[in-house]
# Entry
Amino acid sequence: MTWNEMTLSDEERAQIDAIRQREGLESIDQALEWLAKTALRNGVRRVTGKGRALYAVIGKSKSCV
# Structure
């Protein structure tokens, strides 16, 4: 996986740290990942009206034909 570096202002870092503490996460990186996934879930929910999994779902495969 590639990593991207972000430059955060003091205010942004404080807000992300507050989220990290609230969600019980260990690092700023985990808080940023949590924020990205939450934003993605909310966006997909707005578009489709349904929640979608952000992990591999293993089960019976069905043909799309």
About this structure: The radius of gyration is 16 Å. The mean pLDDT is 82. The first helix runs from residue 10 to 23. The helical segments are 10-23, 28-48.
